[in-house]
């Protein structure tokens, strides 16, 4: 009946789905309820209000779709654009690739701006495209804030600056799936028009809510966007928001209570502290990788991701074998290399509900696996590098008795 | 933090989401896992195989979409049809109405066959439309097996007979949301091309899986269907089925384990016994309604639904007040009357994980509420009628020690 | 793996262990913790303070023993008495019998005052014994507040009056296992010296905490009591209370969090409201028994118990068969008749986390079982009587949205 | 509401209560049940049969007391001995000290054989006492298999040899609280008369079951033992065993299901594999301690405990500060030094449901704490030593897919 065997805990270090806090698991361990009773709308109202905080927006309108990140992508696109609309989209890894595939299948006219995997979005090309587009034929810029396949974080503030520089009205649509609640993200400051994430990422919930947040401009655009949509249509939600019942179709009661608990925990820790914690654990991970003598797939420090580190292995090692052994031998779940970097990188997800000692356990495990597969790692070296950094930076937690 | 207050249990008798067995709640109370490990595909394989049994199909291909019934509708339509395709669709209540709305918004050419709410689908009109359609311009018949708003069950065997009689090749798309796992449903025998349900209905899980099952003809149709789709596209699933990894995007780990537990329980009880149990509880409910001197919204016995009973209240009573009081005073969740029957009916959902004494508690509660709102009910009368029937028909459960 | 089979919920109406609120089950669904960390003492401190409220004492000292009611009995006796001490003890049913058996095995000199089962403690005998005991050879009065086997509640206020009348210094030791948190209980007002209960009764927790509360006189007595004791010794606890670490040996972390949640729920409802609710459900039960034409085992109204009703069946019926069928056929758990009333009574426990509709379900079930075993019950009659009363008395719950 | 704060998991490395497997937490997350229904005896029967396996006995009789280890001690002593009986008992640390305190308070005549803390039981003294005791005045030998305070494991096989050598009939009573299910323990082979453990130790359950197992000789002795006992009396259990209802008073339903799940997991892994795993993790821990340049409190290798390691800190460090910081800064729970070794040692519990990477996380944490408090540890050194050993010895787990 149970497929994760062996004694002790599973060490979950894929970049999603991530570890769920026990408080959230408890909050979700419950029977169904009538979502048309007064209780669920009252709960939903608090969620819609509070979820805006994780996007750092006051003017945005959030939607909690019963879907995944892929569905959230579709909702972002189909509500704001019409078939044939020209969009600029950056291909820098597997997830941006998949989003572009979706954009094309939804019949948008996509200018794909490709970078080598391991690099960030080429914003020079963006600038030149905007410069050329006096007629404003470009309707939207689609960008993945954090490419989960390569551990690359794009600079959204710069994207906004470029758009502003050219006074270009294109909508800015951002995939924040592996960034929001973990990396610095500022919807209002950066003029993001649609931002989206999935519950199973830094929010540390099960999969099942695709959270989409729309700026006033995006809401306005949705009124004339001609893409066919029903399930993902914002219009139905907006209608039920007005009625105060909120749900055009049945939500997951469990995920609503889970989201409430997850937000409570995030706010208790403090969103800014959460972001600092992610940076601290990510830095420690990168120091370990360096100590092992391995390379970060991310080519420049400016793109380093604080939620996932893709580690390049020597050519004589198959990175998939590392992932396989980690799981089978040490109950450690690492991320595979995907597509172009399959076999070449393995990924350590360090996002969501994690702390220092969990990370050290993971790093110690990776070292053993590296040795298992024949890489001449010095055992303890990564842990030493990581813990030297962590020991200096880990705060005392005042709320702890 | 908790919005359902008051001592004791909530008595959940809405026609979905329904009561989840404790075993299933337990099975779902867990952390996330890496869905790319060998464990999740191994689990998924058993689910895809076993879920076919609830559709009574051996040739069908099931899809477990991370969505709701509304999403499952969209998947059924967009994978089999092209914009402009003519379809015949039956409007008999709120849920068939919503599906038709979706069909129209997805740009199909819908022949709406309307019945009075409380009646079943008008199959005479179907017959005449098929008789007239020598050119086979009708591409699909869309029908709700059980209309949850009015408690009306349509006769799918007859639909198939009519199609066969006219040797009409139209696809038969069936919403089984409030029927599958509770009413007799036979995908293969009745030549259903797409059948669908939602996890929060008779499967007795949380909301979050839209289960769509496609016949070989439907799979064939999907290859040429031109409706735009990505998230709901079967093609991506079929590709991952072949690869043996099953998931084009992140599933809910918890729902997969929950579905496993739910199927195990259904098979342990025996799917046929489950259907008999639903009939027994539904019959008892109808006898209670009769004893109260109230009318079933369903106009003829042939359409009586074994999953939900819509009860018509006298004109001087607002049925919404019954639902409100039941919840507020007795922690009893009943279904509202929707749209045309708002204020006129309340609904008792008797599907999913329920037994005799839970139903008697509900009926006793309804009696008190009826008295609360001024209806001259004889307290105990409905319980008497229901229990007289149940006492004769409830089986000894052999598996119980 | 699971031994309670069949669809739907188990209907738990034994007089303990009782139904646990979902909030409490959730609060307990957790890993172990170090009980020597600062967190557990901080939690324990709140529990010891708040648990006094359920005894209605401000001067008492509570002990949370990792044991059952039987262990709590032993702790009450051995900490306050010395071998050979004379005590007066009332035998009115199986549980007072078992306590007396324990008293005798612990080598006390027990004056057993026996009543017919179904009657309360004979307080006239108490008065005459006290009157005779000028030398104060009687060291303690032991009395069960509520005899769970027969559904008899003794009048503790009268016991105190008699003691005061004779100015007798005997300690008053009270078994409140099936009364505290459900019946009116006033430790300070009634001059109770040791009161005790078990977590699995009206507190609605799992079995595992025997709660003993000692008056200042009892604490004083414990300093000279010569009964041998270690595990149940108050001295060890008092020592750790002073140190602020509270636990001389490992407590159940889960039960501590569960007790916290259980107390929070009780206080949220209001302890007085809880007591009124118990009276209301008990009255409804008694009205149903009357409507069935059956007799209450409790011989006079003054002794009626608001936590359990023992129902006498006609001589031609074996009450054990009723209990067996209820469980096997309807998933309804009723209490057996014990010892002298075995086969003659069955018991309906109506204590703890329960509401009106749960009770109606139970009563409807009992009616069906009565018919099953050949008693000429009029189905619905008990439910009618109970619901007529409940419909008039059930309050609107203001905290519910 | 929740007192263990901070993000991520608590790292629980006290020598009890220990980490509970998720499967066990799930199995226990349930409502109460009637323990007099047929289901609970059926479950209990399997537990009593299977629990014998963890004692490696076929002839023993197990008792599942709703109590802690302290209560289990009391049950072992009072059922087999009479007041004034002479016993030989070994004082080697805090827990043997507490047991001796209990023995003395229960009025036995205790020959205390003391060793320096950090040493094992002085078996030479045992030999000489037995040699001198021609009259067989010694009624029992009481010995702690594994002293949790100092991490010392006594050699029970040698104890048996000495007893046999002198053909001495004294009963052999063994505290296996921190050994059974983790260390090699052979009740039948070693002629142990009473062995006992607590659920919260290597069985990896919550606190609440004191498991006592009695040899036929011990059962025989219980018939004439004159120690006063009621709650802890084996006689009541034996009576209910014969009746097939098993429980003289209410057990914890949750712990019974939890014990079932815990035993299932142990047997799935294989009890011998579990013991090997404990040895492997313990060896790794000792290698880390050595690498840190710190001393094991246990003075000779023959006494090394595979369930807990007590680490001696330099005189200029207060070991309590290490424990305090570990908890407050890194969410790591370590064991305090107790009594004579307070401030001098901290303890790493490595028993129960644990795996390699959890241990590495702990060791990495200890290193950081050591540095925090000013000990010149080389970060990573302990992890390096431990992982070098683990990487060579960790088995592939065949049951894992």
UniProtKB/TrEMBL annotation, chains A, B, C, D:
Coiled coil: none annotated. The keyword Translocase does not apply. GO terms for molecular function: alanine-glyoxylate transaminase activity. CDD domains: AGAT_like (cd06451). Substrate binds at residue 347. Gene3D superfamilies: Aspartate Aminotransferase, domain 1, Type I PLP-dependent aspartate aminotransferase-like (Major domain). Its EC number is 2.6.1.44. It comes from the Eukaryota. The modification N6-(pyridoxal phosphate)lysine is found at residue 201. Its cofactor is pyridoxal 5'-phosphate. Keywords: Aminotransferase, Pyridoxal phosphate, Transferase. It is an enzyme of class 2 (transferase). The keyword Transferase applies. Pfam families: Aminotran_5. Transmembrane segments: none annotated. Residues 45-311 form the Aminotransferase class V domain. Belongs to the class-V pyridoxal-phosphate-dependent aminotransferase family. This is alanine--glyoxylate transaminase. It comes from Salvia divinorum. The gene is AGT1.
């Amino acid at each position: 009946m149970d497929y994760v065997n062996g004694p002790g805990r599973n060490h979950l270090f894929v970049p999603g789905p991530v570890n769920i806090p026990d408080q959230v698991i408890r909050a979700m361990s419950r029977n169904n309820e009538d979502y048309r009773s007064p209780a669920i709308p009252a709960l939903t109202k608090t969620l819609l209000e509070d979820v805006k905080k994780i996007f750092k927006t006051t003017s945005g309108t959030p939607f909690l779709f019963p879907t995944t990140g892929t569905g959230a992508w579709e909702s972002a696109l189909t509500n704001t654009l019409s078939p044939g609309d020209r969009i600029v989209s950056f291909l820098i890894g597997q997830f941006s690739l998949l989003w572009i595939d979706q954009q094309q299948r939804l019949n948008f006219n996509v200018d794909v701006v490709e970078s080598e995997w391991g690099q960030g979005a080429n914003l020079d090309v963006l600038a030149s495209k905007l410069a050329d587009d006096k007629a404003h034929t470009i309707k939207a810029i689609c960008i993945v804030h954090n490419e989960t396949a390569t551990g690359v974080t794009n600079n959204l503030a710069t994207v906004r600056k470029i758009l502003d520089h050219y006074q270009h009205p294109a909508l800015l649509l951002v995939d924040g799936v592996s960034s929001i609640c973990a990396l610095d993200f500022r919807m209002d400051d950066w003029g993001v028009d649609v931002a989206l994430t999935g519950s199973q990422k830094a929010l540390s919930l099960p999969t099942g809510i695709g959270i989409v947040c729309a700026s006033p401009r995006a809401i306005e655009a949705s009124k004339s966007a001609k893409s066919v949509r029903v399930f993902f249509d914002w219009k139905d939600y907006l209608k039920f928001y007005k009625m105060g019942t909120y749900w055009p179709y049945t939500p997951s009661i469990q995920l609503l209570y889970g989201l409430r608990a997850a937000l409570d925990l995030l706010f208790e820790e403090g969103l800014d502290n959460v972001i600092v914690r992610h940076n601290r654990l990510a830095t420690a991970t990168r120091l370990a990788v360096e100590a092992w003598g391995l390379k970060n797939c991310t080519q420049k420090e400016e793109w380093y991701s604080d939620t996932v580190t893709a580690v390049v292995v020597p050519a004589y090692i198959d990175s998939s074998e590392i992932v396989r052994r980690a799981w089978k031998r040490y109950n450690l779940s690492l991320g595979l290399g995907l597509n172009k970097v399959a076999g070449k990188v393995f990924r350590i997800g360090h996002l969501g509900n994690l702390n220092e000692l969990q990370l050290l356990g993971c790093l110690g495990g990776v070292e053993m696996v590296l040795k298992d597969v024949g890489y001449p790692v010095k055992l303890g070296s990564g842990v030493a590098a990581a813990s030297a950094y962590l020991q200096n930076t880990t705060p005392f937690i005042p709320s702890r008795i």
